[in-house]
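Design job #97: recover the sequence.
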């Protein structure tokens, strides 16, 4: 059966306490009780509908969590102060000392650094594999493996994980499949493809206004409750709580996510097709030349397209830098990390968002230093943007140099 994540968000209805069309913001860190006994019951999780302290939970955070759980088709969700504040407690909750993780090798640099440099301090070790190679994943499983971690669409190389096949394998070996879906909200629904837990950096497309960092973990009631457990819940005890004022604003921005995702995808597809014809080695899952194009097509919620991210190799870091500086000067976007903004953002991930990955590893995974990653914005006239970007590429010599190498 087809899943319609945007409809699920839309079907939720909540009013503010005075009948406001937006839920009221809970502007308190702590809550009063008329009866002392109710406080104890709430603390022990035996009383529904009461709030105790905003690190535990707050009405605003619960509302946003509900919308995100509806979007991913999970029972529950726990919002956090950043994407990393969602990823690290999840992995710490799932693993004990001595456990092993299998992770895709192309992932966000911060997640890579956590798995490679930080988690070993607690004797949790990670094998990094090519996530598009199912045999390599299976070969990496050991008796201590607990988790397979990947991004549905990888940062920055836009490799696509075969979530159905990986989840089947994970179930066979009793492993949890944790998927970071930051690059493909609405477009890919990992739970529907068999994943156990889905994570987002809300900082990106979901919030969409580049004004905050935020994150979420979506999963079963049992798992989300375990993260929030006052005695041993990693989210509760590490404390990366989202502020209520922020969760209220992220929820309001989520109301337009479906419209924005369609436009990001439409604009990215337009540029990818045009620049591919011009001879640029464009990486975009919507292009038939993308190695996992058919796989993406078999997994996606069609109405939201192939997403707003694209990349290509400008030939060298110098060319990439010159191009990005010129495009920014011409107001075609900003030379900035992050993604999902109304304006196009670009950076060279080898020296920025993936710089935590050692250069030898970057080379192995095919991350060249001339790679430019684009988060395509919501430009109204994308043909005009294309013409202006093409001029920049010609002026810097990116188009000419690349077509000469191709010919
Ligand atoms: N996951 C992905 C795919 C990301 O790109 C990022 C940040 O760039 C993160 C997680 C971390 O999110 P945050 O910066 O909100 O902590």
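Job complete. Output follows.
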């Amino acid at each position: 059966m087809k899943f319609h994540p945007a409809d699920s968000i839309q079907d939720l209805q909540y009013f503010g306490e005075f009948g406001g069309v937006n839920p009221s913001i809970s502007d308190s860190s702590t809550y009063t009780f008329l009866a002392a006994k109710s406080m104890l019951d709430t603390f022990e999780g035996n009383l529904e509908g009461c709030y105790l302290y905003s690190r535990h939970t707050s009405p605003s955070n619960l509302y946003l969590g509900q919308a995100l759980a509806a979007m991913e088709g999970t029972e529950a969700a726990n919002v956090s102060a950043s994407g990393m504040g969602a990823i690290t407690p999840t992995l710490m909750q799932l693993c004990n000392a001595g456990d092993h993780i299998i992770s895709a090798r192309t992932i966000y640099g911060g997640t890579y650094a956590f798995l490679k440099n930080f988690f070993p301090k607690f004797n949790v070790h990670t094998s990094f594999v090519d996530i598009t190679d199912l045999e390599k994943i299976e070969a990496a499983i050991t008796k201590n493996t607990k988790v397979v971690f990947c991004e549905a669409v990888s940062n920055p190389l836009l490799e696509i994980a075969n979530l159905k096949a990986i989840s089947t394998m994970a179930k066979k070996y009793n492993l949890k499949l944790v998927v970071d879906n930051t690059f493909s909200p609405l477009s890919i629904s990992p739970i529907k493809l068999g994943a156990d837990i889905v994570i987002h950096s809300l900082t990106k497309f979901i919030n969409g206004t580049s004004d905050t960092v935020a994150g979420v973990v979506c999963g079963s009631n049992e798992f989300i409750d375990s993260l929030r457990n006052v005695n041993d819940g990693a989210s509760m005890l590490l404390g990366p709580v989202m502020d209520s004022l922020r969760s209220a604003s992220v929820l309001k921005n989520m109301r337009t996510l479906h419209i924005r995702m369609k436009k990001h995808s439409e604009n990215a597809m337009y540029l990818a097709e045009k620049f591919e014809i011009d001879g640029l080695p464009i990486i975009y899952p919507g292009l038939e030349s993308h190695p996992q194009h058919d796989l993406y097509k078999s997994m996606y919620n069609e109405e939201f397209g192939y997403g707003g991210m694209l990349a290509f190799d400008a030939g060298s870091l110098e060319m990439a830098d010159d191009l990005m500086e010129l495009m920014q000067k011409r107001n075609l976007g900003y030379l900035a990390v992050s993604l999902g903004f109304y304006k196009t953002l670009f950076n060279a991930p080898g020296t920025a968002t993936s710089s935590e990955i050692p250069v030898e590893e970057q080379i192995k995974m095919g991350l060249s230093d001339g790679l430019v990653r684009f988060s395509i914005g919501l430009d109204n006239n994308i043909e005009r943007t294309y013409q202006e970007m093409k001029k920049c590429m010609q002026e810097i010599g990116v188009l000419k140099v690349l077509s000469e190498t191709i010919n």
